[in-house]
């Protein structure tokens, strides 16, 4: 066995792998809640790729970047405190961990609508919690009255609602959920990984009745920067209603310069938080608002065109997320047919349908390609 390194072989492998890896810019990635990172984010990530985000003593720029993000994005939500994480899953798990820590003595139960992200299931499995799901129509938000019934019955330590569900983009009633949580002394987490950088702007522009704020009774909100924030993966923020909640997310690490570590990860890419801050500074709130409106208009464009196809059922988008199904093919069959055409959509199993997430990189020309592919698959001229 030859144990010598072979850099040329590595480069050939990388070149070949690049040639068969889809890119956001070619318009084929239509179902993922990821997008092409902003060029300044790529530059920052590369420049600070050596930085350990778990060590703000040696690398104080990590705390500077976190502060820029928490103050900047937090201003959109009326939130002042938070912690940078690797993504929505870590944020959701960490939120429930904090909720469990501050709610000892209550039932070891979490209540959430059935439309909640699977990371909540994961969190409860990891923490040994019982997850009670409220059956909901995947196209509708949870009813506040039903939510309160479940809280009264199950006496949970935490409730989770979603501001932009994974499968349909539904926005649960955050303000009303906050009122319920406040009345019953329950930790309320809002999973806004997808909708966090959309809802405030779309509400302001009249596309949505619901707004997203750190309303009274809301304990935490997660917002992903590597989704509509156009930052490199991995990047999310867990906003918290109280500064002392951050302490519940910190662990003793005596060997570290600061003696502790906050968040679930140990060593982590410091380049990610620095890049996210640089992107936020570059785009600004106005730029994110322009993105949100353009994305929503493109989603409505896709819905209008799909609605004219006789073999397609299209649901009007709530956020820039389109759900559709075929009257001829199962959603699995249609998924495979699009995959064969190198069009990468995702599934909405609860609706037996497929989804397109109109992210910042998605243009009308990309949507036209999908529309034409669906016409071809269904034999429509």
Automatic annotation (TrEMBL):
<comment type="similarity">
    <text>Belongs to the group II decarboxylase family. Sphingosine-1-phosphate lyase subfamily.</text>
</comment>
<dbReference type="Pfam" id="PF00282">
    <property type="entry name" value="Pyridoxal_deC"/>
</dbReference>
<dbReference type="InterPro" id="IPR015422">
    <property type="entry name" value="PyrdxlP-dep_Trfase_small"/>
</dbReference>
<feature type="compositionally biased region" description="Basic and acidic residues">
    <location>
        <begin position="8"/>
        <end position="26"/>
    </location>
</feature>
<feature type="region of interest" description="Disordered">
    <location>
        <begin position="1"/>
        <end position="32"/>
    </location>
</feature>
<dbReference type="GO" id="GO:0030170">
    <property type="term" value="F:pyridoxal phosphate binding"/>
</dbReference>
<dbReference type="InterPro" id="IPR015424">
    <property type="entry name" value="PyrdxlP-dep_Trfase"/>
</dbReference>
<keyword id="KW-0663">Pyridoxal phosphate</keyword>
<dbReference type="InterPro" id="IPR050477">
    <property type="entry name" value="GrpII_AminoAcid_Decarb"/>
</dbReference>
<protein>
    <submittedName>
        <fullName>Pyridoxal-dependent decarboxylase</fullName>
    </submittedName>
</protein>
<keyword id="KW-0456">Lyase</keyword>
<dbReference type="GO" id="GO:0019752">
    <property type="term" value="P:carboxylic acid metabolic process"/>
</dbReference>
<dbReference type="GO" id="GO:0016830">
    <property type="term" value="F:carbon-carbon lyase activity"/>
</dbReference>
<dbReference type="InterPro" id="IPR015421">
    <property type="entry name" value="PyrdxlP-dep_Trfase_major"/>
</dbReference>
<feature type="modified residue" description="N6-(pyridoxal phosphate)lysine">
    <location>
        <position position="227"/>
    </location>
</feature>
<dbReference type="InterPro" id="IPR002129">
    <property type="entry name" value="PyrdxlP-dep_de-COase"/>
</dbReference>
